[in-house]
Amino acid sequence: MHLFIRGNRHGQEIEEDGTMKIDGELSDEQKIITGMLEDYCRKNVAPAYDGWIRDRVFPRKLMKDLSELVLGTVLPSTDHSADEVTLGLISELMGKYEIPVPAFLTMHFAKLLPLITDRDTREKYLEKYRKGELVICGGFTEPGQGSDSASISTTAMRNGDRYEVNGEKSFVSSPGIADVHILSVRTSQQDWSHRHRGISLLTVDAGEKGVEPYEMESMASVFRGDFGGIRLNNVSVPRENIIGTENGGFQTLMKILNTQRVHVGLYTIGLAEISLSEAIEYAKTRKTFGQPISKHQAVAFRLAEDWSRLEAVKLLAYKALALQDNGMDNSAECAAVKWHGCEVAFEAVSHAMQTFGAAGYVRTSAIERRFRGARGFLIGDGTPDIQKLIISRKLFGREYSP
Ligand SMILES: Cc1cc2nc3c(=O)[nH]c(=O)nc-3n(C[C@H](O)[C@H](O)[C@H](O)COP(=O)(O)OP(=O)(O)OC[C@H]3O[C@@H](n4cnc5c(N)ncnc54)[C@H](O)[C@@H]3O)c2cc1C
């Protein structure tokens, strides 16, 4: 059920007017990488889930294994670097096999590591990441703000060649698992209308004195520490830990989050695709009124509609990524995938649950787990309202949009 669009490494697929060509074929590289990942997941992820849920301990070995398979693909200028379309195939596959969210997000936050300007600091983090020894928490939300991500109050005050960080991040993924937190911090006070100008991104090691992660169990929590917050009390951080430029962090973050929205969308679509496949198989074997439930038009059509919608949002998702690969503006497409893709995917998981009836509603059902997971992605990484704001700005211009 894959849709395959080649990225710019393998052919120019987006015309200047934004028209997209689809050749229906994976490149050899894409076949190898997705084949290896799928094989690994089938053997190691799907069978391990029950144990992970029971023990509630994030499997560090998973990161080691992924380092040999896909972690390098997000790093530019390496032998393993991949274009965004290929990364999209990986994200979709990760969703299908429910690669734990801390690993999935680490891979995408790692795109920020090459932007650390100090060479030694950059290499220190990159080496750990490449070896699968680094789980990253991206902390941008605070108790007082989420959608308005420029209104942060966590501060990093310069003190000689170090920053002193104070504040709190909340409702973030992996705070109790991460080895390093990438945080948005205020490095310069600005008036409200220029508040996005005084923000920087800083890497803060989890073991640093004054870093206090805490847990808030979410409806989709699997591992201890996979959701919650971080209190920062007089945390001393070297200036070299800055990502990009001082006070330029907001723009850097927005750039990374733009395509991350598509990857989150594709991960959620992956959750829906596997749920849909399972629902189809179940509908062929479950009998009511003397026949398989797939013979009831209401059941079959519901799933046929989900298949159609998922195929449509995948097209949009890979178009958004192909635009990125071709250096073209894609902010509206990315935002559309995030809200519409995640909504379509959540609804498809919900319909899969409906197909299973009560058997899909119990805690032992993977559909029930995916239902909770897919719901979270309608909030995390930006709500549908905020995505529609981004699209409106593109359609109407800032002057005429909400
Ligand atoms: C599963 C999950 C994972 C997450 N992971 C992370 C993470 O790793 N790192 C991180 O930093 N954060 C993370 N978050 C937090 C997430 O980014 C925020 O919850 C999200 O940005 C919304 O912020 P908020 O919860 O403060 O809601 P608010 O910003 O308070 O919004 C409340 C409601 O008002 C609406 N609203 C707000 N402003 C507008 C507007 N201008 N126009 C229309 N409607 C508006 C919103 O859509 C929402 O419905 C995660 C959240 C979840 C659920």
Number of individual domains: 3
Gyration radius over CA: 21 Å
Could you give a short account of the major beta sheet? Answer: 4 strands, mixed
Strand element count: 10
Show the helix and strand layout.
Layout: H1 28-44, H2 49-55, H3 60-69, H4 84-96, H5 101-109, H6 119-130, E1 136-139, E2 155-159, E3 162-173, E4 180-186, E5 199-205, E6 211-215, E7 227-238, E8 242-243, H7 249-285, E9 287-288, E10 291-292, H8 297-325, H9 331-356, H10 366-376, H11 384-396
Parallel strand pairs: 1-4
Antiparallel strand pairs: 2-3, 3-7, 4-5, 5-8, 6-7, 9-10
Helix pairs in contact: 1-4, 4-7, 7-8, 7-9, 7-10, 8-9, 9-10, 9-11
The protein binds flavin-adenine dinucleotide (FAD).
Report on this structure.
- It is a single chain.
- With 402 residues, this protein is an alpha+beta fold.
- It folds into 3 domains: 28-130, Acyl-CoA dehydrogenase/oxidase, N-terminal domain (Butyryl-Coa Dehydrogenase, subunit A, domain 1, Orthogonal Bundle), CATH 1.10.540; 136-247, Butyryl-CoA Dehydrogenase, subunit A, domain 2; 251-400, Butyryl-CoA Dehydrogenase, subunit A, domain 3, CATH 1.20.140.
- The chain has 11 helices and 10 strands.
- The protein has helices at 28-44, 49-55, 60-69, 84-96, 101-109, 119-130, 249-285, 297-325, 331-356, 366-376, 384-396; strands at 136-139, 155-159, 162-173, 180-186, 199-205, 211-215, 227-238, 242-243, 287-288, 291-292.
- Strand 2 (155-159) and strand 3 (162-173) form a beta hairpin.
- Helix 7 runs antiparallel to helix 8 (297-325) and helix 9 (331-356) packs antiparallel against helix 10 (366-376).
- Residues 1-12 have low confidence and may be disordered.
